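Quick board copy: two proteins, each given as sequence then tokens.
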Amino acid sequence: MKNHRPGFTLIELLIVIAIIGFLAAAILVAVDPVKRIQDARNAKRWSEVNAILNAILNKQVDDRAIYDGETSAPIITDTSVNGDGFSQVIVRDDAGVVCTSNATAPFCFGQNVDYTGAKTCVANIKGIVPIWVSELPIDPKGVGQVPDTGYLPLGNKNTGYYLHRTNGNRIEIGACRPDQGAVIRVRR
């Protein structure tokens, strides 16, 4: 009499593993983790631009005056382009920043930034820290040289966000490097 033991053969196990692998790959493609990570970074940017704008507006209300930033690098520039002012990159500290030098000037994609004066390209708004916001946020992409520019890297004073005051005297805060071509800005 033959001794017959129930169980799986090697071929059956390999087929099951192949099916599980195929299903896992299909789920991974369907979930698209890169897009999810980019969506998460953009969500954080939305939160951070709102936090910065709310902090500036709350400081203005508490002080009963327009907040023009620190005296070393005010956030309102008098120069204008087509009736609307230049944008300025928000920095944690403007010491050593010279806007006329690519090595020390911050960069912001898609924004018209004035690089003609010593500090015209930056907005030093550290006066809102720590009372109205615990710290100035840095873009979720973190520290890194701005590609192909040589400009001041993110995280080294450069927050990755910009400030713009419209000719209607509204403040706009936005992200310099959003993912997926998104436009992330709030204006009030």
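And the next:
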Amino acid sequence: MHAVRIFKETAEVADRLAPFGVTAEEFYSVIEAVVAARNDVVAADARTAGGSKAYFAGVRHTRFLFLPKGWDMDSTNGVESVVHRESGISIVYQSVDQACVGIRGPQAISGKGPASEAVIKEAQGGLFKDAELPEVAPEKIAELNRSVWFLCVSVNDQDPDDVRAELSLPASIDGGNFKGFLERIFVVRSGDWKSRGPVAKRPDDGDPYEFSIARK
């Protein structure tokens, strides 16, 4: 058995993100949009308004980040993502309870349905037997022709400075949530958000790109 690989130091995070064509700093535009959307609620709104707005902003701005880099939008089986056709890598936005905690993996706040479970099983799920979850040999991960990663973002309701994010590769979904991870890349660690200082004004949310959605 091999321990889940966690990348959290600045240099190793940069190296691991290189195949995605993105830097840790670039993810801040996505996270800023998520935080702003989450806070754009009033007392009269539905209880789930903040979470729903955060999700929509996360999906939108993940696409704004990756589409100019040659990725495509995809909505196969209702799972909203971006996909890099050549490498077979997909990225899905996900709001979670706590990101970047080394002793435990993040859990999806809203849970995951059968569509997400099937997508993961079809991609990285074929690497191992159930008895081997959630850990597999690193060399097996490199052999993947397709992989589904999740941009996991957590916002602490009690501490507005506690915002974290990781780009992680789940082993599977069981009981409606993630069951172990194969790799975790800490892109916004504890303390990073506060240390940035005031958030710069975000660009308008207008749709600057032309793209098509692949639905199956």
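Board note added afterward: The longest helix spans residues 49-66.
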